[in-house]
Every structure is written in structure tokens, then in C-alpha cells.
């Protein structure tokens, strides 16, 4: 990464042009420097630690996703309205088979969430716009409203929120033109894949419409509710009713679908969700139970789970499964590969939000 250069906001484009001109002249007779950009990435950071982490992530993702990255450091405590800006470039080292590819990063420090006119002029026209909002969402603020109008896709991380607030997600999900995604959704993907594999054998599939009890335990409440929303949306559960609520534990009764019917007119099913925030490992246990079968996943280590299947009339199965834990840069890379709506996620989100509406 080149040393960031302070610059007046009005002169950002001119400074970027100067940087590219100097780099091209310095490389004459050697490797060509390619200026690449496939998308716009706007990162909203609300403290210096997040801003520094964003820069580290951008350094890693530009090799696979060349972009113009704009880091907005929102100083919520500042009231003077002053704006500071720096520009730099991230370059991948060339080799014998490829040229050196460089991407731009613009760092802007703004006062509070009121600044709305800074971002749009900095975007590269006719390229998709991704917003990665780090930390709690400030929906309703002028900055948030402006970014929603500019973005094609909005990425957030529910694990950074203080508590589960369904109204936040509900408001974001109402825009038909804005695709949204939660990094927590990617974190529970291995669990969802294991659950799907439970019911690959023909003799296990009928259990999906015979469930009588579901238990979800998690150290991250957002992952717990997304998991319940996914199960509900895939299995056609309807009419959830919160019967019992204790500290960290919620018990619902829902109508499950019958065989060949996704209308949710079947028998009642009890779903218990227990959230105990601690080490932030996320999901810790999931149990799916019928009168004649039981399917269970339990975390046994940060990167491993134990799975157990017991179906009447069949041999019990038990195995350990390694779960690959990705880092933040890898999760963001995955999000940048999805431009359109993730219908499965949005339906899971809808059902998880509807639990509390």
C-alpha cells in the first residue's frame, strides 16, 4: 500500500490522477501498472479500530475484487462539520505471468451521520455499489438514507450489534431495489449444510413434516434467530406464538406443514431458542426431534461439531465434522461475489423478523 496522502476533498480525483501518472512513469521499462476497478465499495467505520481493520481487509480483497474503496470514518462526537481526506493505492506484486494491478482507496473522516453529499461524486460511474456498514446501524440518519439510495447491496455484521433488534432488519428489507446480507448468515452456512445432509437419505425425509420439538442454542442471538427463520421459511412454519419468555430463552408454538402441504396447517411444533452471549462462538447446539427420530448438532470446539442421527428402525449414526472458520476478509470477499438478492436469506430474515412483529 502506498503511503496515504492528505488531500482536499475537492481535489481527490486530481490527486488520484497524479498518483497513477507517477506510478506509470516510475514503472517505464518494467512491469506495466494496471488500474483496475470492478465495483465501488463504501465502508462505514464508527471508530479508529474499525477504520484500520477496514483498510487491512481492503488490502487483501483487492487481488480478487479490484475496486474503488471509500472508507468513511464517522466521528460521532465531532460537531464542527470538518472533513478530512486521504488517498492511497493498494497494489499486488507482479509476477512473470501477470502485471501489477493497483486499486484506489479514499479515506474520509466526517463529523457525525449528517454528511450526505460526499460519497456520490467519488463513485466510479456505471459500476455496482456495495456498502459495508461496520458496527451498529444508524438507520434513519441522513448518511444512512443517502447510502441506501446509492447502494446495490448492503452488507452488515449482526454479531457486532449489542442486541437483536428485528425492527432494524425489517426496515432494511423493505427496499425492493436494495439487496442486503448479514455476515452472520455466512457463519451459519456450515450448520445449514449439515442439517440439509441429515435429510438426504430417503428414509429420513419424512421426519421434516413430523417434527414435534426444535431446540436452538447459541452464544450469538442473531445467529439463533436467523437459523430459526431459515427453518421456518424452508419448512413452511406458520403462526408463531411466543408462549414463554425467560432470561435468554424463548419458547414458541408454530404450525408445521403436513406432507405435501406448505401452508402450515399441520400440528403444533414447539421451538425453543436459548441465547447466552459469551465467547461469541455462535451456534452451539441444534436439536430436531420427532416421535421416532432425533437429529442433533453440537459444537465441540471452535472449528468442530459432533452430529448424531437416531431414527427408529435404523442404525444410529454419529460423526465429528470440521467447520472452516473464515476471517473477516474472506467473508467480505464472499459478499462481493453476490450482486443480486439472496432470496433464501431474505425469506429467512422475513420469518425471523415476523416472530416479533
Question: What can you tell me about this protein's structure?
Answer:
The protein is α/β, with parallel strands linked by helices and 357 residues long. It folds into 2 domains: 5-151, no CATH class; 187-326, Dihydrodipicolinate Reductase, domain 2, CATH 3.30.360. 28% of the residues lie in helices and 32% in strands. The strands form 2 sheets. Strands 1, 2, 3, 4, 5, 6, 7, 8 and 9 form a 9-stranded mixed β-sheet that branches. Helix 2 (48-61) packs across helix 9.
Label this structure with key terms:
alpha/beta, 357 residues, Dihydrodipicolinate Reductase, domain 2, nine-stranded mixed beta sheet, 28% helix, eight-stranded mixed beta sheet, 2 domains
